[in-house]
Design brief:
By secondary structure, this protein is α/β, with parallel strands linked by helices. It has eight helices and twelve strands. The protein has one domain. It has a five-stranded mixed β-sheet. Strands 3-5-12 form a three-stranded antiparallel β-sheet. Helix 3 crosses helix 5 and helix 6 runs antiparallel to helix 8. Zinc ion binds next to helix 5.
């Protein structure tokens, strides 16, 4: 069992129309940098994985909703021993934020990767998925839900409108919340989608062989103030997956 991450911080499609109906207020830009020690450790191709992850989210998210002006989201990237091989692979979250337009938005954040797992993930071709996952936490997935009144601790019920609409369309038309992970310990529970339902989705708490980004995850970013680039029809969403291995099947939670 590979646990994807631990949340840092703070405290914490269906329908294409959902993602395009909001007034565009400013571009979304990530400004990423590495600690000196990590920078000197990384190969050029390893650094390019981080650039790919940055490009991924900058392509998915076009900007901020009306009333929000944030110049850029600064992300510092580091590595350090966390818990040996496997288990936690890294963690990420905002370290600074601003309230604008009635929402809490990340302005600075950090991602740290477990130095015991890093090279293996790279060699296995799985590093990109992990970086995209941790970057999502910096952008606000699972970390800014509570501050934005989308989630109450211990409820395991996410109630943001856009993600819920996507969940109703893709999973359960009568749902009144999106199921949130209720185990995995601190940093995993309460900050990811429920693995038992979402399976290999990127934003569950466990890394799979392929880790597609689904419509519910995309909707959750609308709920916290972002505007997304136009996205394909629901049936095409799995094609957005970032899994690079092209393998069938997936590793299940033990
Ligand atoms: Zn995570």
């Amino acid at each position: 069992m590979l646990q994807k991450c631990c949340r840092l911080l703070l405290v914490n499609i269906a329908c294409a129309v959902i993602f395009t109906s909001t007034v565009f207020a400013g571009p979304f830009n990530i400004d990423m940098s590495f600690t000196p020690s990590f920078s000197s450790f990384l190969s050029e191709t390893q650094q390019s994985v981080f650039t790919q992850a940055e490009n991924y989210w900058e392509n998915v998210i076009s900007g901020y909703q009306a009333g929000i002006e944030i110049g850029s989201l600064s992300i510092m990237v580091d590595y350090s021993p966390v818990d040996g091989e496997y288990n936690r692979l890294g963690w990420g979250g905002p370290t600074n934020m601003e309230y604008q337009g009635g929402l809490a938005l990340a302005t600075e954040g950090i991602m740290t990767f477990d130095s015991a797992d890093f090279e293996r993930l790279y060699i296995e071709g799985r590093l990109l998925d992990v970086v995209i996952h941790e970057m999502a936490h910096v952008i606000g997935f699972g970390t800014l839900w509570k501050l934005n009144d989308l989630y109450v601790n211990g409820s395991y019920q996410y109630t943001g409108a856009a993600a819920l609409a996507a969940y109703q369309a893709a999973y359960d038309a009568s749902a009144t919340w999106v199921p949130v992970e209720n185990d995995g310990g601190a940093g995993t529970e309460g900050a990811h989608w429920e693995e038992d339902i979402f399976g290999n989705e990127l934003m569950t708490g466990w890394l799979d062989l392929t880790n597609p980004v689904g419509s519910v995850t995309l909707g959750s970013f609308v709920d916290i103030g972002y505007v997304l680039n136009s996205v394909p029809a629901p049936s095409a969403f799995l094609l957005l997956g970032v899994g690079l291995l092209g393998l069938t099947g997936r590793r299940r939670k033990a």
